[in-house]
From TrEMBL:
It comes from Pycnonotus jocosus. GO terms for cellular component: plasma membrane. Belongs to the NKAIN family. This is Sodium/potassium-transporting ATPase subunit beta-1-interacting protein. One of its GO terms (biological process) is regulation of sodium ion transport.
Length: 203
């Protein structure tokens, strides 16, 4: 749900790189849930590996908006340099007032408007940082849970193998009786008195 919420706001802000990352994350989460329900440890392992990538991505987003290591929040990196859009929260954050001023009269800028945003209670980059931090927290919880589920599935498979679950013979295998014993039982059924008489003659 948190990933879907973030995807919606990234769509509104035309942030193409986060949109792609969120889409992949949603797909992997669904795969992990399917693996948990259907007892498929491999799917859960894929989810756990993706979680490491997802945490790395969110750390990058935090560094991007905090302008760490030469990154700039005003760059077009998250839009693949195909648009000049910024985060949706830059104009629609809590308390933000959006004002448009006409640029008519300025050569080359007719029919354009200048947009200014004032009165924001919280700068948009901090909202994005909180989003990413929350995603990291959820991802770490999911990683621990994934490791626990995989260990439980592995223990169940080992115990099942120990009791003969993967034995090539049938579950209700009946040991065959010796051939001579079967022959003797058959003879007794056919000749109930003859067998004892023959034994007397042998003596």
């Amino acid at each position: 749900l948190a990933a879907l919420e973030r995807q919606v706001f990234d769509f509104l802000g035309y942030q193409w790189a986060p949109i792609l990352a969120n889409f992949l994350h949603i797909i992997i989460v669904i795969l992990g849930l399917f693996g948990t329900i259907q007892y498929r440890p491999r799917y859960i392992v894929v989810y756990a590996i993706w979680i490491a990538v997802w945490v790395t991505w969110n750390i990058f987003i935090i560094c991007f908006y905090l302008e760490v290591g030469g990154l700039s929040k005003d760059s077009e990196l998250l839009t693949f340099n195909i648009s000049r859009h910024q985060s949706w929260w830059s104009e629609n954050g809590p308390g933000c007032v959006r004002k448009e001023a006409s640029m008519s009269g300025i050569k080359g800028l007719d029919n354009h408007s200048y947009i200014s945003v004032i009165g924001c209670a919280l700068e948009y980059r901090y909202i994005e940082v909180m989003h990413s931090s929350f995603q990291i927290l959820i991802a770490l919880v999911g990683f621990v849970y994934a490791c626990y589920v995989v260990s439980v599935f592995t223990e169940e498979e080992d115990s099942f193998d120990f009791i003969g679950g993967f034995d090539p013979f049938p579950l209700y295998h009946v040991n065959e009786k010796p051939t001579n014993l079967l022959f003797k039982q058959t003879y007794l059924l056919l000749f109930p008195t003859g067998f004892s008489g023959m034994e007397g003659m042998n003596k």
